[in-house]
User: Fold PLP-dependent aminotransferase family protein from Lactiplantibacillus paraplantarum.
Amino acid sequence: MKKLFANRVLNNDTSDLDEIFKNSANPENISFAGGFPDQHLFPDNDLKQAYRDAIEHDGQGIFQYSSTQGLLALRQKIADRMLTHADVQVSADNVMMTQGGQQAIDLVAKLLLNHGDAMVVEGPTYMGALAAFDTYEPTYYEIPVDDNGMNIRQLRKTLKAHPEIKLIYTIPDFHNPTGTTMSAKRRQALVSLANQYDVIILEDSPYRDLRYSGQNIPAIKHYDTEGRVIFISSFSKILSPALRTGWIVADDTIMHELIGLKSAIDVQSPNVTLAAINSYLDSHDIDEHIATISASYQIKRDAMLTALDQYFPQNVHYTRPNGGFFIWVTLPEGVDAKDLLNDVVLPQAHVAYVPAACQFASRKVKNGFRLNFTNLDTATITEGIERLGHILQPAPMIVPATSFAPQF
Amino acid sequence: MKKLFANRVLNNDTSDLDEIFKNSANPENISFAGGFPDQHLFPDNDLKQAYRDAIEHDGQGIFQYSSTQGLLALRQKIADRMLTHADVQVSADNVMMTQGGQQAIDLVAKLLLNHGDAMVVEGPTYMGALAAFDTYEPTYYEIPVDDNGMNIRQLRKTLKAHPEIKLIYTIPDFHNPTGTTMSAKRRQALVSLANQYDVIILEDSPYRDLRYSGQNIPAIKHYDTEGRVIFISSFSKILSPALRTGWIVADDTIMHELIGLKSAIDVQSPNVTLAAINSYLDSHDIDEHIATISASYQIKRDAMLTALDQYFPQNVHYTRPNGGFFIWVTLPEGVDAKDLLNDVVLPQAHVAYVPAACQFASRKVKNGFRLNFTNLDTATITEGIERLGHILQPAPMIVPATSFAPQF
Assistant:
């Protein structure tokens, strides 16, 4: 049967990841592997009331087919938020609702990528985005990120050498998996380069509103002068991931095609969900909710950083994010974080993380891993980092600390 | 910007369809074009109660990420229904929830189709499926359907001549757009051919439970001996399309890959929706509901057939479906149903239908159109068919009636 499968499937091996998440689910282990928000922070009662309000106030029409683009009132609220929270001025016509941020990535990949088409990703990057892109079989160019985001000098060189590149995928705010944020200067430079080389930028920003320190920076889309930046985000991290509701912001030409593609993929998003989110936004101050969860996540981040400072050896580098969900750990060169996980960390320390390789399109960088700090309480975070620190402490950490930015 | 788009987008022109549905939405016109269920028949209050029950009884977990495959309790109910309603024996592990039947089609296309891969579709077929398949750029082979389903003799010849064919897409029950049903004998023959030529069958059966006359026939999947039939269906036509909930039934090897693909497309379906449908099925007899809507749709079908018998000229053929949503009209050869629609039917009779061409992969057959009978009351159905009959009556219907099965 397998010989009938498309190449995109045969090329796609998720067994590594499956195993990681299976180990994470084992309650004996402290798992820093997932990217889950803390479910104790969900506004459960408010969301439930929002569902009740939506189904009570909306008539029979709520159960009939509706528009592919999604509920206008909700799109208008998102357009308004884009201005106040990202310095991006758009109308509701330029917003489309999607099944989470994931479908937004899939849609943009489907819009742009023929088999073999060239695109840029950050190294490391969000592994779910790689899973989506992989199915369109692109040629990847990987640009390292540092504490100020994507390395623009390296990007310029790559674009010059490969004028066939069509798409740059970036997570500028509290990057997954490194937690770092792209500076305003680099955002402007990125848009200039995209204009110069005629490239689309996919700006994936699900963590944008979850800032715990430092100053807000306008979205990359804010600097867009030619309608070539597609902005995507989601309610998954600020409200609830089970809503499966995200959005795309794009200019008219691109939006027109994305609507057609979504229609062919799943016709439309579920009306009741969209109406419930719209109800929630009508009745509650989501920014107040975001402030509450941010305060809690800040405490968790600080607990993890404190534990890292205390228990991790000098030759292990880690990022100090201003927001989001993740801290990135760079091990000395030559250490394979996946082998370390399977051979030592899981069996001896009973701790899980996501090793570097599956977060690089090249799969070549091995000496790093991603830690999530949002989904555990502070005592467990401290305990897990202490256990991990003990493993990392003695050996084989004899190589001097390297810069965080991976080389390839 | 457009030059950056993938070929699948550049090849895809939906402007015809956009125009048809724009005209349908005009309240001055009687529209037989859409494929909408009658929203007055939705079990609104029961569905609303099901949402309330789901959010009341399920804890915080309902708002956290969950499994890609979907709620086990609901999958188990669907597995049970597959046995009682389709003579197919499967476990819950072989069921995955999708965003409507449309996503199920997209997933199977993604599983199997490399650019240029060969597949079989019926002529005519569901235009939404063509939209989904088109984005994977297959090579289509079109097999005509008659009152007993796909022409198996023609299929055999095609498979023999094109051993590279990987996939057969069929709508065996109350076919969209013709309303006809594949005989049991042809179902068996279809599976034999698929075994012989190593082909996957995609059995799309959203109308299966909506039978108004005649005897039930086992699903094609019932005859599957080698795990090569993928069955898909949906709650859209029997409960509500806005739930955006369908399902795939497939054997282990195929299911494993489909789960991976769905995870990369949108992670999972929304928990609250799945829990609400599960609640509905716990508290209500969906078969009783299906019996109620079937009784109403039967009256609508009969009204349309009576009007067709009364008002349509002898040289126009139409199908007499035992269930589903649609009747297919075959005009004399040489008549272009799209020109007729735009030049005469819409401006003079103010009636809309879906002309043949966009329902054929080849786009070559023009002398037919699809009529929907579920979404209007009987008086409006009769009025619309009478108006249409007056247009068709005098001219240019001078060619003798042809067989329904389109030639190509």
Observations:
- Chain B has two domains: 2-42+288-392, 62-283.
- Chain B touches chain A through 78 residues (CB under 8 Å).
- Residues 62 and 272 of chain B are 7 Å apart (CA to CA).
- The longest strand of chain B covers residues 139-146.
